[in-house]
């Protein structure tokens, strides 16, 4: 073996840095590291949202402690929400008098509730202010429709103005009586909700229909005596039905008005409050793991299925979930055919020249336009111009009150369809470009027309690319907030855009959206601390909904890809 052979063998066993770089192995490691970091970031984000959001629904123990503040000592009840470490200098600048000599102190955020009596739901305390914290089992947490949670001790229960239980004589009996009256009240409130939202809503809708019908006849000079009599007869029948329902409502409201409970605050004050405003009551310090888990599931289900209350800081987010999904589905139905038709024209029919290149550049540039610009365009063109013209043509009887000349579900869906249209066009055109020319020529050679070739051969093979564009469109549209604030989304919608009243889908109606709900709760809420966990929970839910919508589209795309793989080969 000569010297050159030895050198070659040595270089193969110990390749130099340049050879290693040229082999492409560093890029493999870099790509693997980037993918790993992305996965870790996504998993970490989901875990953060889940822990910070869904832990809010776990019934936490309630602490009782004496708090020393400026030579005053007062008892306080509340849930420990958060603990942070702050420096001595920060506390001194904030006006605290510190006894210890430590450089850092533990600071606790306590949810004390009772906003109608104490002024605020949350209070920050220094741990050295707390004296001998306890967790009494008879502490009661009462979730209310107004004023947030109540923390205290149950004293007595009154039904229809008569005392039915006193905790001083029988604490267990008073608690059972309290739960029984709450259950009865909740069933009555549910019946009231059914009448107000269902039966009375249907009558109000029918009354409005009669008003519009009368106005239409008046504009057409056809409101004669016969028509007036028919309308009056229908209106009288609806009035009679409304009167019956109104009497039922008065009876139901009267049946729960005089139910009340007396409770004692941490400072010893006794208060009397209506049971009609109670959502649920529980004693977390005396609950076991199984009871807390059942309560957790109940509260989580309420979050997913109920309506919001207390400026969206409590209750559920079902209307926002429903509005988000419905808007995305309508947007997908609108954007897909327009995007596909535009891509087919640009790729299959348009002459490939300067004009076509300019159109493609314009489409690509539209994808980078800020979303708020689309919102302004949607407000000006769709709402004011197109909606106003529709009102003049089809809804003159409703004027001057606008029907479609105001922000609503249809205009929000159209605006987002316009926003995501470039994505669908580009993805579909790329899919059409990947189909071999020989496939088209073979179809034409077998006697198919150009339209038949496009419809039965080319478009089915390009379906996976169309689905890819739709997936990207759904992912972007579901999280948009800025344009929706101008064209249809509101803080609180009194009813869903889908109900049992004709035409069942109310495209002119305003709706709630998870993205706007996050913005409203996180940045517009007067009770920031109460809203913070709901921001995390709602954000996680929005991510899950987007993931489910995309997963459905990906599954369909993969099936179509397998179906036409042989043709592509």
What does this structure look like?
- The structure is a single chain.
- This protein has 18 helices and 13 strands.
- It has helices at about 5-15, 15-20, 25-55, 90-95, 115-120, 170-220, 225-255, 290-305, 320-350, 355-365, 370-395, 410-435, 435-445, 450-480, 485, 515-525, 530-565, 565-569; strands spanning about 60-70, 70-85, 105-110, 120-125, 130-135, 140-145, 150-160, 160-165, 260-265, 270-275, 280, 310, 315.
- The strands form 3 sheets. Strands 6, 7, 8, 9, 10 and 11 form a 6-stranded antiparallel β-sheet that branches. Strands 4-3-2-1-5 form a 5-stranded antiparallel β-sheet. Strands 12-13 form a two-stranded antiparallel ribbon.
- A hairpin with a 2-residue loop joins strand 1 and strand 2 (about 70-85).
- The radius of gyration is 33 Å and the shape is flat.
- The model has no long low-confidence stretch (mean pLDDT about 85).
């Amino acid at each position: 073996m000569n010297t050159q052979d030895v050198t070659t063998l040595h270089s193969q066993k110990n390749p130099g840095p340049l050879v290693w770089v040229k082999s492409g192995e560093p890029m493999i490691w870099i790509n693997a590291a980037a993918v790993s970091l992305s996965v870790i970031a996504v998993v970490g984000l989901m875990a953060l949202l889940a822990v910070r959001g869904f832990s809010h629904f776990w019934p936490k123990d309630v602490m009782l402690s004496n708090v020393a503040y400026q030579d005053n000592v007062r008892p306080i009840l509340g849930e420990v929400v958060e603990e942070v470490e702050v420096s001595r200098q920060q506390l001194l600048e904030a006006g605290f008098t510190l006894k210890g000599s430590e450089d850092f102190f533990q600071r606790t955020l306590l949810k004390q509730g009772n906003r109608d009596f104490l002024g605020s739901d949350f209070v920050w305390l220094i741990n050295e202010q707390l004296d001998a914290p306890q967790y009494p089992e008879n502490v009661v947490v009462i979730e209310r429709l107004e004023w947030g949670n109540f923390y205290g001790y149950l004293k007595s229960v009154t039904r229809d103005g008569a005392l039915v239980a006193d905790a001083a004589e029988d604490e267990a009996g008073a608690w059972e009586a309290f739960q029984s009256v709450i259950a009865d009240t909740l069933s009555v409130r549910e019946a009231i909700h059914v009448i107000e939202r269902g039966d009375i809503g249907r009558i109000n809708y029918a009354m409005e229909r009669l008003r519009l019908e009368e106005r239409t006849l008046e504009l057409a000079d056809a409101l004669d005596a016969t028509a007036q009599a028919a309308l009056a007869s229908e209106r009288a029948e609806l009035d009679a039905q409304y009167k019956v329902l109104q009497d039922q409502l008065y009876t139901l409201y009267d049946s729960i008005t005089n139910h009340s409970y007396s409770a004692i605050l941490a400072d010893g004050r006794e208060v009397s409050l209506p049971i009609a405003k109670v959502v649920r009551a529980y004693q977390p310090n005396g609950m076991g793991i199984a009871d807390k888990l059942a309560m957790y599931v109940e509260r989580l289900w309420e979050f997913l299925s109920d309506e919001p209350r207390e400026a969206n800081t409590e209750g559920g987010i079902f209307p926002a979930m429903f509005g988000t999904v419905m808007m995305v589905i309508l947007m997908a139905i609108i954007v897909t055919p327009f995007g596909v038709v535009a891509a087919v024209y640009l790729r299959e029919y348009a002459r490939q020249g300067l004009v076509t290149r300019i159109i493609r550049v314009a489409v690509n540039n539209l994808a980078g336009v800020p979303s708020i610009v689309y919102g302004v365009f949607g407000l000006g063109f769709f709402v004011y111009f197109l909606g106003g013209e529709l009102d003049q043509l089809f809804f003159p009887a409703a004027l001057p009150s606008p029907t479609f000349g105001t922000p609503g579900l249809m205009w929000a869906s159209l605006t987002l369809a316009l926003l995501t249209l470039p994505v669908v066009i580009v993805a579909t055109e790329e899919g059409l470009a990947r189909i071999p020319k020989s496939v088209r020529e073979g179809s034409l050679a077998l006697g198919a027309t150009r339209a038949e070739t496009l419809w039965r051969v080319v478009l089915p093979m390009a379906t996976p690319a169309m689905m890819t564009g739709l997936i990207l469109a759904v992912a972007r549209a579901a999280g948009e907030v800025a344009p929706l604030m101008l064209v249809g989304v509101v803080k609180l919608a009194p009813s869903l855009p889908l109900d049992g009243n004709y035409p069942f889908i109310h495209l002119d109606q305003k709706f709630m959206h998870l993205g706007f709900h996050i913005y409203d709760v996180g940045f517009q809420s007067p009770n920031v601390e109460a809203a913070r966990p709901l921001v995390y929970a709602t954000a996680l839910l929005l991510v899950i909904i987007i993931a489910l919508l995309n997963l459905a589209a990906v599954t369909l795309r993969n099936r179509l890809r397998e179906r036409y793989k042989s043709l592509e080969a």
